[in-house]
Design a protein that fits this description.
SET domain-containing protein; 3 domains; 404 residues; four-stranded antiparallel β-sheet; binds S-adenosylmethionine; Beta-clip-like; globular; protein-lysine N-methyltransferase activity
Length: 404
């Protein structure tokens, strides 16, 4: 039988401790934390705090041991798509993101919304305009590296399809497109996948409080696990008081982090962009490969998807294959494709030498782009311009560091 203390951990509407927290809340984050507890969220030893350059994040208020449960979000505390609304408006076939975004829009924007306290701690449209490429004007998109443009184009296509699906409902309820777009972006940057028990279909949900967790690269985040009752966050190591707790959103490159979350991973001490980052080489390689070689690569599924790790200086296997296609005989090349090894002597140096030559030839283009982002045009969209320049500088640094 669970002990009384264990039972008391979950707050109820008349929990005096939580009511006291509400009465003494000094800011919107403390109020929201108490509100989340009333919805059933369990919080152990962390609080929401401003983190320079990261908005708000979760910081420990006591020492924690590895494996300690820091947060628990029961299913009932999650914000889920509104099945009735979706059915009535024939939106059950819309994308999971559209379903959750339009449900959140309708629930959060109601005059008597019970989500007001949550809304108060979410980023606003201006935050998104400053950081999310989807919000930037098309003229600025032109300056983005190709590896950012690619997921951005996909994101815009997905968004447009979702807007088309919900447009009628939004019109009927007098929600301008900007409000749907805002909730679409909220869902994009802070939702979770939830697989309800009893084999029901998986859905996208929003989880109050857990969505304060900022991202850390692979290996630096706490453990966010799903069980039959909800989501829990466990300490991945021991923590001292005042440390930020991170979660890993995925092993994403800075290109993807920028498009989907509006930031890039950079170590404040070393400037390193971390082991998850990669510099895409497609634009460079595809510019230099002949059409015949491209056809050859296409046949074996190796056309595109080339990358360089800025952390280790390694080039990916696809790049190795593509460059070897220009250097080896058909027999030697096929042997490498199937075994990952050179048939006779090791050609790695030659391969890297050619990559270095092509990277050097591309370098002035990087400089030129940094200068043109700075140059002409109005100086509005300042933060957007800084982000674009920062990514080009990271690409430039990786090129400069590349050794044969
Ligand atoms: C799930 S929310 C995390 C909470 C958020 N910081 C806030 O203030 O509400 C995700 C957003 O947090 C910010 N973020 C997360 N991790 C970050 C990091 N490592 N560096 C900078 N910003 C980060 C980005 O704006 C991202 O879109």
């Amino acid at each position: 039988m669970p002990s009384r203390t264990a039972k008391r951990k979950r707050a109820s509407v008349d929990d005096p401790a939580v009511l006291d927290e509400i009465a003494h809340a000094q800011n919107e984050h403390q109020l929201f934390t108490a509100w989340a507890k009333l919805r059933g969220v369990e919080i152990n030893g962390v609080e929401a705090k401003s983190i320079p350059g990261r908005g708000v994040g979760l910081v420990t208020t006591k020492t924690l041991k590895e494996g300690d449960r820091i947060i628990f979000i029961p299913e009932k505390a999650m914000f889920q798509p509104d099945a009735t609304l979706l059915k009535r408006n024939h939106l059950t076939a819309a994308s999971p993101q559209a379903q959750l975004a339009v449900s959140a829009l309708c629930a959060f924007e109601k005059l008597d919304s019970s989500f007001f306290t949550w809304q108060e701690v979410l980023p606003d449209e201006n935050d998104f305009k400053a950081s999310m490429p989807m919000y930037w004007p098309r003229e600025l998109h032109e300056f983005l590296p190709p590896a950012v443009k690619q997921p951005l184009t996909r994101q815009i296509t997905d968004y447009e399809k979702d807007w088309k699906a919900v447009k009628e409902l939004c019109k009927r309820r007098n929600f301008p497109e900007e409000r749907f777009k805002y909730f679409w972006m909220i869902v994009n940057s802070r939702s979770f996948h939830w697989k309800p028990p009893q084999n029901k279909a998986g859905i996208m949900v929003m989880c109050p409080f857990i969505d304060y967790l900022n991202h850390g690269p692979t290996g630096s985040g706490c453990n966010v696990l799903q069980n039959a009752k909800g989501y829990e966050v466990l300490a991945d190591r021991s923590y001292e008081v005042g440390e930020e707790i991170l979660a890993t959103y995925g092993a994403h490159s800075n290109d993807k982090l920028l498009v989907h979350y509006g930031f890039m991973n950079v170590s404040p001490t070393t400037g390193s962009t971390g082991a998850d980052d990669e510099i895409r080489l497609d634009a460079i390689l595809l510019h230099n490969l002949t059409d015949a070689i491209k056809d050859q690569l296409q046949d074996v599924g190796f056309l595109g998807g080339y990358s360089l790790s800025p952390e280790t200086g390694e080039i990916c296997f696809k790049t190795e294959v593509a460059i070897r296609a220009t250097l080896l005989t058909a027999n030697e090349w096929e042997y490498f494709v199937s075994s990952g090894e050179d048939l006779s002597e090791d050609r790695t140096k030659e391969v890297r030498g050619l990559v270095k030559k092509w990277l050097r030839e591309y370098r002035p283009h990087v400089m030129g782009l940094i200068e043109s982002v700075e140059g002409e045009g109005e100086q509005c969209w300042g933060q957007a311009r800084e982000l674009i320049k920062a990514r080009w500088r990271q690409i430039g640094d990786a090129i400069d560091k590349f050794e044969v």
